[in-house]
Amino acid sequence: MQKIPTWILVVAVALFDENGRVLLQQRPAGKHHGGLWEFPGGKVESGEIPQVALVREVAEELGIGLDPAALEPCAFAEEMGCPAIVLNLYTCRSHAGEPAGLEGQQFGWFDLAGAAQLALAPMDRRLLQQLVR
To answer: For the CA atoms of the chain, what is the radius of gyration?
Structure first.
């Protein structure tokens, strides 16, 4: 009998600016995939709705506000491991405030071709490929 992994739900956003660029941030050194680039987001806590978790995570990491109603489900990726992770990606085309690396992380706005040239975390690379289709 195959053991079923414990799945961790993670949410992220492909936040686009008025020029069609997407906001990406660099994972802190010392964390899983440290130094690699990713879509902003984080873990969904117990009892949280995914969109609400995403709004919370982006505010904590980058200090910007998102409207949960403006988040559109877009794609997902999975990573088997201990724990196993499923990452749901949403798109959004509006935000309040200017981003800041509140956790000391680097961030930037990139066109999709430029984003593809970055050292992306594996699931984020798969998600980016789904965006450019």
So the answer is: 14
> How many domains, in total, are found in the chain?
1
* pTM (two decimals): 0.91
- CATH number for the domain harbouring residue 124: 3.90.79.10
Q: What tens-digit pLDDT sequence spans the chain (133 residues)?
A: 666 668 899 999 999 999 999 999 998 877 777 789 999 999 999 999 999 999 999 999 999 999 999 999 999 998 887 688 999 999 999 999 999 999 989 999 999 999 999 999 999 999 999 987 7
Give bridge partners of residue 24 from the DSSP assignment.
Answer: 108
Q: Which domain holds residue 80?
A: 7-131
Cα–Cα distance for residue pair 107/13, rounded to 1 Å: 14
Instruction: Evaluate whether residue 1 is within a structural domain.
Output: no
List Cβ neighbours of 67 (8 Å cut-off, separation of 6 or more): 55, 92, 94
Q: Tokens for 29?
A: 């050194």
**Parallel/antiparallel/unpaired status of strands 41-43 and 7-15:** antiparallel
Residue 37 resides in a domain: yes
Residue 124: CA count within 13 A, CB half-sphere: 26
